[in-house]
Hints:
This protein is mainly α. It has two helices and no strands. The termini are far apart.
Amino acid sequence: MLTKLIARYLSREDGATAIEYGLIAAGIAVAISAVVFVVGDDLLALFTGVSTKLQEAPTT
């Protein structure tokens, strides 16, 4: 009886699935952070330039 219980416990995979989803989410978070780190300054400069041009534009 105890061996069947242990075998059934070891054959369950739902915990492994949760860990896999956690690893995927962590990988996506790292990728987003890397992209923001690399492109962040360029985006800030772009939006600052657009904001400056909009403020300098004549109003009608």
